[in-house]
Design brief:
Strand order of the largest sheet: 1-5-4-3-2
Number of strands: 5
Order of helices and strands: EHHHHHEEHHHHHEEHHH
Radius of gyration: 38 Å
Shape: elongated
CATH topology of the largest domain: Outer membrane efflux proteins (OEP)
Number of domains: 2
Number of helices: 13
CATH superfamily of the largest domain: Outer membrane efflux proteins (OEP)
Strand content: 5-15%
CATH class of the largest domain: Mainly Alpha
Helix content: 55-70%
Distance between the termini: 38 Å
Structural class: alpha+beta
Oligomer: single chain
CATH architecture of the largest domain: Up-down Bundle
């Protein structure tokens, strides 16, 4: 370390010259200072021109999906209860509140980093009572007791010539953006989770209704079989088969009711309520929200703008790049200006006498010339971290593309699956009616009735599940596209978070 300090014993001419040149020197140092380390460059990602799994015409697919439509995608289902649940979840979900607290933390950390660019000023006051011994020439010793009072200010300013502190502020700013994108990503997941749970709840309720309908039909068949057995027209085997099928179907109802109740509890937690809070609202059965046959998807390049997880990965690269500059700045000297001013006296009354003042002012430089390669190793560490973030970004983009393609393929195939099930249900209902008629007339055995009734029950359940899957595939598609937030609404939320965060 080498240092140069200005002391109060300099001559008046030197003093005037120092204070004349000091502002100019500082200004030149700041203006000519450069921020070491690489500048952030937005990463490039190779995305296809169009979706391979989309069934839309190329012209329709090329149209950019409206942000407002994508932000409130749940409105396409036309279900007021679903819309209400999503809006309540956005306003009260605890995980979302945790993400907002992390934004406040990141903003506060940015304030700490910004404070490092300016000078620091401390005020101090001290009192000391001491006793010492003084030996005279004749060998006698006298004890001296005295007081000392001191008050003043100390100032310190590190001039950011090589930009280490500016890079640190840049990294902190990127951390804030990353926290905001993390909240947006959670918002996307939250809205999708509420919709998925709600659709699944309605599917369970539909399955319960179908099971009860089939149970009633099977109970009627069992009664008819017992009557025919009592009349000597059929064997006891038919009665046993009928009763076994009735009991098997009845056993499905408690399981479905349990799953439905647990799903209601899951939705309650998502909106920040106790598990039973939504029982009265959601326990009455409702229809599965219907999905439109075709959903606009825009073009793949929109993902880089819309997906919060992609934007989050980009912000993390920015922060890591800036921290390379922070580590690099440690290889260069640090220049500081320190000063102090105050008064010192042996009694409290003299403390307010300016003639007892003291002051000092001077620049200093510190250069960490040799630290066994640890500083250069620190730079390499930050470079490796930045490389990792770039890889994570590329992987995030690939995962995003896969999620959209999967959702597009699933949506198209499930529509065809559901159409086939509609035909199968109609045919099975006809088969049940014919088998029951033939059995009553003694033209067929009861096994045919059992097979027809079981086939109808299976296809009706499959149709309910397929109807729910069509809707959940649409939810998955909107989630994969990054739906659930808008730039304006997120900015307002961020401003609110900053305001409530205090000074």
């Amino acid at each position: 370390m080498f240092s140069i300090r200005y002391a109060n014993h300099l001559r008046p001419v030197q003093t005037r010259l120092f204070f004349t040149l000091l502002p100019a020197v500082l200004l030149m140092a700041i203006l000519s200072g450069c921020a070491v380390g690489p500048d952030f460059v937005r990463p490039e990602a190779a995305v296809p021109a169009q979706w391979s799994g989309s069934t839309q015409p190329a012209a329709a697919e090329a149209q950019t999906l409206a942000d407002e439509e994508l932000a409130h995608w749940w409105m396409v289902f036309g279900d007021p209860t679903l819309s209400s649940l999503v809006e309540r979840a956005v306003g009260a979900n605890l995980d979302l509140q945790l993400a907002e607290a992390r934004i406040r933390q990141a903003r506060a950390a940015k304030g700490v980093a910004a404070g490092g660019l300016g000078p620091a000023l401390d005020a101090s006051a001290a009192y000391q009572r001491s006793r010492s011994s003084l030996t005279a020439a004749d060998g006698r010793t006298a004890a001296i007791t005295g007081d000392q009072y001191q008050a003043g200010f100390d100032a310190f300013w590190e001039i950011d010539i090589f930009g280490g502190r500016r890079r640190n502020l840049e990294a902190a700013d990127a951390d804030v953006q990353a926290a905001i994108e993390s909240r947006r990503d959670m918002l996307v997941s939250l809205t999708a989770e509420v919709a998925l749970d709600y659709i699944q709840l309605r599917a369970y309720q539909q399955q319960i209704a179908i099971t009860r309908q089939n149970l009633a039909a099977q109970q009627h068949s069992a009664k008819l079989t017992r009557e025919r057995f009592e009349g000597g027209f059929v064997s006891g085997l038919d009665v046993a088969n009928a009763e076994a099928q009735t009991a098997t179907t009845a056993s499905q109802i408690p399981l479905l009711e349990s799953l439905a109740q647990q799903t209601i509890y899951s939705i309650s937690i998502l909106i920040g309520e106790a598990p039973p809070a939504l029982d009265a609202e959601l326990f009455p059965a409702g229809a599965i929200p219907g999905a439109p046959p075709v959903a606009p998807v825009g073009v793949p390049s929109d993902l880089l703008r819309r997906r919060p997880d992609v934007r989050l990965a980009e912000a993390q690269i920015h922060a890591a790049t800036a921290r390379i500059g922070v580590a690099t700045a440690e290889l260069f000297p640090k220049f500081t200006i320190a000063g102090s001013v105050g008064v010192r006296a042996n009694d409290f009354g003299s403390l307010f006498n300016w003639s007892n003042n003291f002051w000092s002012l001077g620049p200093s430089a510190l250069w960490r010339l040799f630290e066994s390669g640890s500083l250069k190793a620190g730079v390499e560490v930050q470079k490796a971290l930045q490389e990792q973030d770039v890889i994570v970004y590329r992987q995030t983009v690939l995962n995003a593309l896969q999620e959209v393609e999967n959702a597009l393929v699933a949506s198209a195939k499930e529509q065809a699956h559901r159409e086939a099930l509609v035909t199968a249900v109609a045919a099975n209902r006809k088969a049940v009616s014919l088998s029951e008629t033939l059995y009553t007339e003694g033209l067929t055995d009861f096994i045919s009735v059992l097979i027809a009734q079981q086939a109808l029950y299976n296809t009706e359940n499959a149709l309910v599940q397929s109807t729910a899957t069509v809707s959940t595939n649409l939810v998955a598609l909107y989630k994969a596209l990054g739906g659930g937030w808008t730039e304006d609404s997120s900015d307002r939320a961020a401003a609110s978070i900053q305001h409530t965060g205090g000074d």
